[in-house]
Amino acid sequence: MAFVSQRETSETYTFSSRPRAVERRARYREEPSEQTQSHYGNIMYDRRVVRGNTYAQRILPTTTQAELAEMQRQQEQRRKAVARRRAREQVRVKTPEALQGRQHIEVQTELYLEELSNIVMESDAQCQTEAFLDRPNTPLFVPAKSGVDAETQIQDGELFDFDREVQGLLEVLVGKVIEQSLLEVMEEEELACLRAQQRAFEERRNAQLCEVQRLQEQERRHMEEKERRIAQQKEVLKKEKEIAQKIAARAYTQQHLANLVPSIFTSLRCHGFFVDTVQTDVETNFMPWLMNEIHSVLDKRYAARSVLDDIIKEVALKRLPEGTDL
Questions:
Q1: For residues 148-170, b (16+ Cβ closer than 10 Å) or e, as one string?
Q2: Which of 107, 227, 240, 310 is the most exposed place for a label (fewest CB within 10 A)?
Q3: How many CA atoms lie within 13 A of 258 on its CB side?
């Protein structure tokens, strides 16, 4: 099998593969355990198959390699710039974090203050160009020659003496290098001092935080002890108040019942709730018996008197003469 594609005017794409026998397939389906795994391929995902129109010419531009190199160079520059920026941010001394409950704000420290705003000044501009589709390239402008040509002769040593002129340049370069070196050394010393100050500040802040935590814990213990003492005092005052109320209630009750008890006993005695056994026996047994005895004696006396009266009357009637009425 061979496949030919015209890639460029003078270049063709050719692919060939060795012939191979077709695998024999069983007439009947085999058992799942006896089936052999077959590998199938999709030519749509085969890298050896050319995509698109095989008859069209594909002419690669001559500047492709140069553009790829330029893109790679730009990507490398961007990567190096990002790495330098990250290294600079790591080396730069940062401001310590704000304490709890506080926050940092941005303050301008420049000599001249300027207004900071997020609003970007915008303006609209319009331009209308004429529609020249096939306008040729503008030729290079060559100004017309004017004036008169003149020339002069310069001898050796008239314009520049290297030994004399280079001395100032060397002094400037050496001074600039020394100044830059001193500035770098001073910057490193300043950064070291800033780091030391930052470490000292962090140590002081950590010590202050520990002291603040200790004072907070002490204050918390004092508050708990104070609340416990206050609760105990309130409990004592509550008990004392209850005892005072009980004492006052008992005194009021005794005072109120001092005159109430005799009157109640008197009333109950009057109503017969408190009974005297002797008096009850006298009233219920002796007095009725006595009255009965008195009545019996009186009845006998009355009977004796009536009998005596009848005898006296009878005697008197006998003694009186006949025909006289009493």
A1: eeeeeeeeeeeeeeeeeeeeeee
A2: 107
A3: 6
